[in-house]
């Protein structure tokens, strides 16, 4: 079994000044393979979004961990951001604008 950390971005709410609030959340999952980890992450993200009444961005990003065992479903990171951009624009600006593509 391997451990994967999976990042999901959520539309968290709107402030009184009209700025959107977003949550970046990273959760650990134990799985036999990447696809299984992503399926667990998607189910957890959907459940979290429903429970908290949030909207999740459809792109989840996973990283296979090395080192000692973690706790399945354990939240590793959560951070809030605010922006006047909608969820898609915020995601593209923060997470896609500077993607690295290694030389072939």
Task: Describe the protein.
With 104 residues, the chain is α+β, with helices and mostly antiparallel strands. It has one domain. The chain is built from 2 helices and 5 strands. It has helices at residues 34-52, 87-96; strands spanning 2-14, 20-31, 55-56, 61-65, 75-83. Strands 1, 2, 3, 4 and 5 form a 5-stranded antiparallel β-sheet that branches. It is globular. The chain starts with a strand and ends in an 8-residue tail after the last helix.
Which helices and strands appear, and what pairs or packs with what?
Layout lengths: L1 E13 L5 E12 L2 H19 L2 E2 L4 E5 L9 E9 L3 H10 L8
Antiparallel strand pairs: 1-2, 1-3, 1-4, 2-5
Key terms:
single chain; 104 residues; alpha+beta; 2 helices; globular
Concise structural overview:
Helix content is 28%, strand content 39%.
Number of strands: 5
**Residue ranges: pLDDT <50 for 5 or more in a row?**
none
Q: What overall form do the CA principal axes indicate?
A: globular
Distance between the termini: 30 Å
Number of helices: 2
Kindly name the structural category. Answer: alpha+beta
Described by strand count, sense and barrel closure, the largest sheet is:
5 strands, antiparallel
Order of helices and strands: EEHEEEH
Overall mean pLDDT stands at 92
Q: What is the number of domains?
A: 1
Please state the CA-atom Rg, rounded to the nearest Å: 15 Å
Query: Which range best describes the helical content: under 10%, 10-25%, 25-40%, 40-55%, 55-70% or over 70%?
Result: 25-40%
| Strand percent estimate | 35-45%
